[in-house]
Design goal:
By secondary structure, this protein is α+β, with helices and mostly antiparallel strands. The protein has helices spanning 11-26, 86-99, 126-151, and strands at residues 32-38, 47-54, 60-67, 71-79, 104-107, 113-120. The N and C termini lie far apart (52 Å).
Length: 162
Amino acid sequence: MERSPVVGSDAAGILDETIHAWARQWSAGATLMGIEHQPSPDDRGHFHWLVRLKGDERDVITMWFSLRQRTVHVETEVMPAPEENREALYRFLLVKNAEWRELHLAIGPEDGIYLVTQVPFNEVTIERLDELVGAGVTYVDEIFPTIMAMGLPALYRRRRPT
């Protein structure tokens, strides 16, 4: 298995161009709400992009893209830490994890539920970003009502179409 090479000093600029080229394709629809970029690296040397998207079930889906040493880490919080029915919720999420590709469910900071993946930097293209973002929006919209109703029933009331 060949490893992804360590990214060069121009990697942040290349990724920024790729993300914005992808965004130009999505700007025709109403799904893309905006992109923010942290132009300087964090204390670990990672650059970050925040992509906000409009969901059907969740008003805003925020995806983080972080340029790391060899990969681009992608994550989005699906829900905060569940307060009820944890065992049933985690079982539901594990079953979903087995069905999906590209992004996978994980327990993240403060026990929130996240969709995550890592892509080798040299595989990040406009087409691959399209697949990742499309999968992220689809997966969040698919499970959000169910997991919120299971894990945070006192806080969540499903919207009904008008």
